[in-house]
Hints:
- Two copies of one chain form a homodimer.
- Chain A is of the alpha/beta class.
- Chain A contains twelve helices and twelve strands.
- The longest helix of chain A has 16 residues, at 200-215.
- The termini of chain A are far apart.
- The first copy, chain A, binds a DNA duplex through α2 and α4.
Amino acid sequence: MTKPTPDPRHTLTLRDVSEASGVSEMTVSRVLRNRGDVSAPTREKVLEAARTLGYVPNKIAGALASQRVNLVGVVIPSLSNMVFPEVMTGISSVLDGTGLQPVVGVTNYLPDREETVIYEMLSWRPSGMIIAGLEHTDAARAMLNRAGIPIVEIMDIDGDPINHAVGISHRRAGRQMAEAIIAAGYRKIAFLGTQMPNDHRARKRLEGFEEALAKAGLTLVDREFYSGGSALLKGREMTAAILARNPDVDFLYYSNDMIGAGGLLHCLAEGLDVPGKIGLAGFNGVELLDGLPRKLATMDACRLEIGKRAAEIIAGKLIPAEKLELFPTLQPGDTIRG
Amino acid sequence: MTKPTPDPRHTLTLRDVSEASGVSEMTVSRVLRNRGDVSAPTREKVLEAARTLGYVPNKIAGALASQRVNLVGVVIPSLSNMVFPEVMTGISSVLDGTGLQPVVGVTNYLPDREETVIYEMLSWRPSGMIIAGLEHTDAARAMLNRAGIPIVEIMDIDGDPINHAVGISHRRAGRQMAEAIIAAGYRKIAFLGTQMPNDHRARKRLEGFEEALAKAGLTLVDREFYSGGSALLKGREMTAAILARNPDVDFLYYSNDMIGAGGLLHCLAEGLDVPGKIGLAGFNGVELLDGLPRKLATMDACRLEIGKRAAEIIAGKLIPAEKLELFPTLQPGDTIRG
DNA sequence: TCTGCTAGTGTTACCGCTAACAGCCGCCGG
DNA sequence: CCGGCGGCTGTTAGCGGTAACACTAGCAGA
């Protein structure tokens, strides 16, 4: 069967089911939606007819008529990140019981693309939108404002939400990590991260980090950025580069766990004394770390719970506060001396 | 701003733009869709009005009227797999130029859930569907058959497609890997994989693998399965378990790269002679492998190209053959002796 | 001058479904 | 015996757009 179905009949509509079962379209509609009173025998007849015909309702028409759409737009920067899939899991787990369905859009960290994705989604008149981050184009903010649906911005709460925000303070997260590092006695600290001007959360973490360093009279002794390629590999390479330039550096702070893991592998391969002579830390708390020879220090980003809470707000299960702050826990692992 | 927009006006429609710009709704529609002849001044007026009002078209109404929907349903088992995001990248890269938009649905490897997801998607009358795998419930197959749209089943071609299939032969992939392993002189071979009865592709690989072993008069000396948890960690644990049970095993074939990477880390930590005394191989060709201390042997699953070809078929850019087979390349890495 | 054509615009009739309301029937209490 | 009510079903009028066609003016060619 190579052709797109040599279908004899036209596409099925309520009318077809109605004729096949001998009742009005309205009654069929009621049966299929489980709404209103329909007698048991009629219900059976209709379901039988729908089943044998293989009728699939047309939600487009349904949505237009009822002015109700069971879709929730979810706008995220990337899928290859391991962090957003987990947010999605949280969202789905809550939405599953509600009849609402998530629809994902990916922006690749591009503001213009985000604007387009939001526009496209809004044009389907979803019941709500969940969007990563608080930074959007003016046009996007305007559209979201006008949409008249609940908007939940997730992951970050350092800024002004359009509607509601659920997330952690990345600035605070960076600060906390810096404080822990300083408390452990490290002094020559370097930063390794992504070259992404639009990854505002990574940026805010670094800002918070440097802020705390400054308060202790320290500054970063070096920094290194990358973009593209295997994060694990880049982590190794960047670490090698930093260590070559600064043999006396005693701590490496990575903007995410993946490059941190690469760095850790490099240090172990070089036989460096971790965490004695050199400490390392990442960010996110990804599951992958559990499998490494040594546990990288990290900070859990509350991804699952962020997804759940956001979905609960959309589903009306949560009293919506403007900002819902979650608090990540620092996991010292084996790469900060205790 | 905590309330879902205390909007003064009702939701905007074409009529609003039409009144604001002094032309008919039809002309506004033409301008906004860039269809038909509209004079430059009129076009300007309309665009200006739409922009200042902040009008977002209602695709639901548009789709109903035009009987055209620019959506392509993509049904995949999981997002946390690293393999499907790459397929998505391929799909998006092709669809981006066409006005078509992918909508993702996730099944978690559950056939019933897949059926539901397909039903939901079809009820939005998409222009095409891309679905991972060839195994579906009868009801799902029936619905897809009736839908009258192009259906592309991806990843796998060992079976009967509904419409079109784009993918690799996992059975052949398993066979090839076995042949390479045997050719390299390994004889005591064990398998480590996921406990997922519905991961048909992993199953087929194993079948092909054992088939080739049998042809050489060999059988698996041991096997180990897992489910859930950090794949990397599970890989370590399972590898430790197998090696404890069978100290003389000389090759470990993993059903995916992630557990393979865990196994590799374990072997290296134990100081085993890889690939001299023991060889390892995974499957997928994930980017992560580039960052490991040693390169795991693997087989690229052509994910990006599968996504592209599938999207091309949907977009009508590719003459649709029933089966489009792609051929993965074996990447021996450093874990099979050469 | 008239016809024919084209560019630009408006009119009409839906698309497939559902909200809202209008029947109809049988049964109850007064 | 009647009004009223609840259970069930049908009818009507859209939802907000677009296809298809109708119309108008302006201009070229006969």
